[in-house]
Structures are given as structure tokens and as C-alpha cells.
């Protein structure tokens, strides 16, 4: 393959992916608008028309803004690759440092920082305009900046040593460097899973032990029935940043803990909280977390192997606007263009995730009353302004959870009723 041919393939893939994203978004907007005037029949008794229309308007606003982001991202990728942006930054960094390893690190860091700065206005608009307009944002601009600063510092503390190690292995470990890098990557991710609950998450939020004795008793009884042990039950001050509600497991092994957003506990009854937790326990009992970790690690191994092949070809660099090949630039280019070439895998990944959600719902229905989980889900859809009428094809591409009507119909199936 020649550099010109690969440039053509890259441009075609970028154009196809961008157009597909815009087309899916237009379908989504049209489908939501067509169903905005009436609450779906399955939700007539549970959802008010005003809440349904708020969800439609909120989802439409986010989707329109995401369309603009899609175009911006495509233009930015072209500017960094065929536009010569990466080559220009690499030239500057090569003049600042004599060590090839430091040159590569500086180039990657500079590109990532510039990318973040250019995308910052989009994040600000999303938070302080769209989220605020619909009453979700509770974050001050000062808190936003503090979060960004903390995230940057943590990223530097954890990411720079990892990047150094990866580039060193790529240069020193010969033909099978990708296997060594993969082992380091797996170890790093497992380490993050262990330390995140106790050391990273508390830097951003306050986690307090659950104080409600009645709820704690119910939850501990459920945990015993399900054979689940956790380091503790915690309430997170999610209302500090947003009115969205959620609950999740975090950690790995003995560091596992259960976290409830304070906004969730304010909205749901004890029975409904128990049902939501039973759903999360379903993921644990069905080994979904472990399956996803294994799948992610398997994909990363395949991608690193592919990178090992591509970085040995001149057309890979030249076809993306780079005239001075290096291991660092190969790594940077590969992971910048990977989302373009892997976009059409989204339906498979989303289907796999939705299958897990159905299985977790089925488990919850066996441990608690399915009606309680239905009621909790309806409240969460209302509070988070999640549309009840997504476009089916758009949902297949993007939604990790089943659409509301499909999910609730599944919970109300006779074989799941207690």
C-alpha cells in the first residue's frame, strides 16, 4: 500500500463515520420529535406529559450539540494529521529535547494538552448551558476548574510514568514489544481498580457511611442473600455537581464498595433502593464486570498487535501527514484514528452491554419485587430526563442500556414476576 492510498482510505473512513453519526443523530431527533406530543401508552399512569416533553427537549438539545461536536472533532483530526499538526508539534519537541524518548513523551503530552484545550469550550457549554438550562448542573465554575486541575494532576502523576514505560518497552523489547506493553497495561488498569475507591474518588467527592439504619438493615440482608461482601455502604454528595441520580459498585476484590448518590436516596423508597441495588448485584453474580474486563483486555491485546504491524510501514505515517516516523508518533496516530475505524463495532458492543442489563434486571426480579425496580427505573428516567422514545437504530449504536419500554416490558414479563 502507498501513502496516498492510505490517505484516501483514512479520509473515506472519516467521512463515512462522520456522515453516519450525523445521519443517526438526525434520525434520533426526528423520532423524538414525532413522539413528543404524547406519553407512550406503557407509561401513561407513571409519567406526566411535562416530564416526557422535558426529556425530549433535553435529549434533543444534547443531540444537536453533539452533532456540532462531531464536525469539530473530524476537522480537528484532519488538522492534526493530514494538516500537519502532529508533524509540526513533533518538530518543535525534537528541537527541545535530545533524547528520542523525551521527544516522544513531549509530543504526545503536547498533543493531548492542545486537544483538551480546544475541546474545553464544548465541555463548558455542555455543563453550564445545556445542563443548567434543564436544571441539572449544580457545579460552580470554581469547582469545575478545581476538578479539571485535580484531574490533570492525577493524570500526570499516573499517566506520565505509564507513558514513559510504554515508550521504553516499544523501543527496547524488540518484535514482541506489544506483549510486554499489554502486560503493563493490564497491571496498570487492575491497580487503578484497586486504588480508585480509597484514593482517587475521595479527591472529587465526599463519601459518608450510610446512616439510615432501616435501609442499611435491608441492604445488608440483601447482600447476605446474594453472597456479596463489600468494604462498606457509602453515600456520595452527587448533588454538589448535578441533580442526576445513580448508584454503582466500585473497586475490585476486597476494596469493593457500594455507592449511592445522595440524589438517588432522596428520590427512591427503601424498596426501590433495594431493587436498584439488586440489579447492581446481578452484574456481580453474573460476572459481568469480569467479562467486560477480560473482553477489554483481549481487544487491547489485538489493537497493540495491529499497531506493531502498522508501525513498521512507511505508508502508515506518511498517509497520516507524518514524515518523521517514531514509536511515539505511531502510538499517537494509531489511537487517534482507532475510533474512526472501529465505529461500526458500536452496535455489537452496545448489544453485549444491553444483554448484561437484561440479565441483571432478571436477577433483581428474583431477589426483590420486579414492580419496585420498574418504579425506580421510571423515577430515574424522569429525574435524569432520559427520553422514553429513542430512535431504535440510534439506540442500537449508542445505548449501553436497553430502551425504557423494552426494559420495563422485560421486567413485567410473567416469568419474572414474584
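Q: What amino acid sequence fits the structure above?
A:
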Amino acid at each position: 500500500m502507498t501513502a496516498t492510498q492510505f490517505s484516501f482510505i483514512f479520509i473515506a473512513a472519516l467521512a463515512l463515520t462522520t456522515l453516519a453519526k450525523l445521519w443517526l443523530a438526525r434520525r434520533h431527533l426526528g423520532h423524538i420529535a414525532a413522539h413528543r406530543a404524547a406519553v407512550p401508552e406503557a407509561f401513561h399512569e407513571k409519567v406526566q406529559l411535562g416530564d416526557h416533553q422535558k426529556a425530549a427537549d433535553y435529549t434533543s438539545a444534547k443531540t444537536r450539540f453533539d452533532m456540532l461536536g462531531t464536525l469539530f472533532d473530524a476537522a480537528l483530526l484532519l488538522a492534526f494529521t493530514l494538516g500537519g499538526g502532529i508533524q509540526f508539534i513533533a518538530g518543535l519537541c525534537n528541537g527541545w529535547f535530545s533524547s528520542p524518548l523525551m521527544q516522544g513523551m513531549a509530543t504526545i503530552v503536547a498533543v493531548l494538552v492542545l486537544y483538551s484545550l480546544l475541546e474545553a469550550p464544548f465541555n463548558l457549554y455542555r455543563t453550564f448551558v445545556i445542563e443548567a438550562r434543564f436544571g441539572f448542573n449544580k457545579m460552580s465554575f470554581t469547582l469545575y476548574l478545581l476538578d479539571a486541575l485535580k484531574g490533570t494532576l492525577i493524570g500526570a502523576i499516573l499517566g506520565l510514568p505509564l507513558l514513559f514505560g510504554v515508550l521504553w518497552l516499544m523501543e527496547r523489547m524488540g518484535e514482541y514489544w506489544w506483549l510486554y506493553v499489554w502486560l503493563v497495561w493490564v497491571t496498570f488498569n487492575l491497580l487503578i481498580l484497586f486504588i480508585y475507591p480509597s484514593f482517587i474518588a475521595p479527591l472529587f467527592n465526599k463519601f459518608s457511611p450510610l446512616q439510615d439504619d432501616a435501609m442499611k438493615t435491608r441492604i445488608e440482608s440483601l447482600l447476605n442473600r446474594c453472597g456479596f461482601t463489600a468494604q462498606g455502604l457509602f453515600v456520595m454528595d452527587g448533588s454538589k455537581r448535578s441533580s442526576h441520580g445513580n448508584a454503582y459498585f466500585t473497586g475490585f476484590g476486597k476494596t469493593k464498595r457500594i455507592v449511592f448518590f445522595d440524589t438517588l436516596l432522596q428520590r427512591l423508597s427503601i424498596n426501590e433502593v433495594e431493587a436498584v441495588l439488586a440489579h447492581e448485584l446481578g452484574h456481580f453474580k453474573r460476572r459481568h464486570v469480569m467479562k467486560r474486563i477480560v473482553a477489554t483486555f483481549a481487544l487491547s491485546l489485538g489493537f497493540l498487535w495491529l499497531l506493531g504491524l502498522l508501525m513498521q510501514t512507511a505508508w502508515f505515517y506518511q498517509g497520516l501527514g507524518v514524515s518523521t516516523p517514531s514509536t511515539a508518533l505511531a502510538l499517537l496516530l494509531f489511537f487517534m484514528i482507532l475510533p474512526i475505524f472501529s465505529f461500526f463495532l458500536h452496535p455489537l458492543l452496545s448489544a453485549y452491554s444491553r444483554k448484561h442489563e437484561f440479565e441483571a434486571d432478571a436477577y433483581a426480579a428474583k431477589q426483590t419485587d420486579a414492580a419496585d425496580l420498574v418504579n425506580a427505573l421510571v423515577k430515574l428516567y424522569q429525574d435524569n430526563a432520559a427520553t422514553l422514545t429513542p430512535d431504535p437504530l440510534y439506540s442500537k449504536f449508542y445505548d449501553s442500556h436497553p430502551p425504557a419500554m423494552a426494559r420495563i416490558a422485560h421486567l413485567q414479563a410473567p416469568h419474572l414476576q414474584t
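Q: And what stands out in the fold?
A: The chain has a mean pLDDT of 90.
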